[in-house]
Recover the amino acids of this structure.
């Protein structure tokens, strides 16, 4: 299984920067997510997590640093969080940090993700 | 009755950004840059307008009855976007051609969204987020997002066109505070 490295792009669509590392279980999704084909972009990321959970079975540390994501991206983010929650339920070690700017609306979004998935997410204000 | 001069003032005054034409990727990206970078000196307000723009502009690209098919396939929707700048708020409006059958459910969704408290809206968004993705008519979550981002009701209007179709206008205020 290989690492995933995707460089963020801010053009007609916004591709987030993605770094998933097999050796450390450290994963980050950063930047902006507004894609032409959202599910197509997130499918390999979900597949990677599934494979990591099934074969490596190690800890997963997720850092979300998204300054913007549209509603279709948010559906895929919920899919990732659901997968992490299921792993945790089965005894997997999962840490999720969500970095946000100081707007109430962004805090609400994280709280809603927590409610929706039942996953503990550390809310960290961006400096 | 309103004079022609007054009508012109009402519709053209305070315009910060306006665009009419094809809502294709290139144009969306130009408009997005304008909103993000130059609309106001308050980044938070710009971000709110930008978030609303993404959701509503996408609806025009996907659902407008009037289409530019030069790019092939179903083509890209044609419509109008206007951002007006007032003392205490921005007004973001989009308009596109539609049929009555297509737009009545959307107007009902707007009424439903406008009747909800913020807590209820958040609950509704959580529910919608778990619906299967990619369904046509799934513009629901976009509208919920618009209402939550703006913290104001979604206003709409329907104007009958000469060809028997309708021009649907959706409008939302974004407070500057």
């Amino acid at each position: 299984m290989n690492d995933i490295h995707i460089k963020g792009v801010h053009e007609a669509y916004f591709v987030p920067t993605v770094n998933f590392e097999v050796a450390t279980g450290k994963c980050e999704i950063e930047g902006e997510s507004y894609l032409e084909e959202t599910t197509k972009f997130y499918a390999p990321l979900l597949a990677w997590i599934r494979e990591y959970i099934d074969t490596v079975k190690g800890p997963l540390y997720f850092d979300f640093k998204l300054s913007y994501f549209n509603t279709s991206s948010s559906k895929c983010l919920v899919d990732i969080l659901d997968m992490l929650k299921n792993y945790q339920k089965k005894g997997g070690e999962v840490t999720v940090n969500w970095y946000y700017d100081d707007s109430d609306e962004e805090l609400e979004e994280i709280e809603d993700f927590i409610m929706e998935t039942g996953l503990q997410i550390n809310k960290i204000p961006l400096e | 009755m309103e004079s022609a001069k007054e009508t012109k003032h009402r519709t053209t005054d305070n315009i910060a950004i306006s665009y009419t034409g094809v809502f294709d990727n290139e144009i969306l990206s130009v408009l997005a840059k304008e909103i993000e970078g130059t609309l106001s000196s308050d980044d938070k307000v710009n971000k709110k307008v930008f978030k609303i723009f993404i959701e509503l502009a996408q609806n025009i690209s996907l659902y407008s009855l009037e289409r530019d098919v030069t790019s092939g396939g179903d083509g890209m929707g044609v419509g109008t976007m206007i951002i007006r700048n007032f003392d205490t708020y921005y007004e973001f409006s989009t308009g596109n051609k539609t049929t009555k059958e297509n737009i009545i459910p959307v107007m009902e969704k707007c009424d439903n969204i406008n009747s909800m408290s913020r807590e209820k809206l958040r609950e509704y968004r959580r529910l919608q987020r778990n619906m299967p993705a990619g369904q046509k008519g799934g513009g629901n979550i976009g509208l919920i997002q618009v209402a939550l981002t703006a913290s104001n009701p979604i206003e709409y209007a329907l104007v009958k066109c000469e060809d028997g179709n309708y021009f649907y206008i959706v409008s939302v205020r974004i407070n500057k505070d």
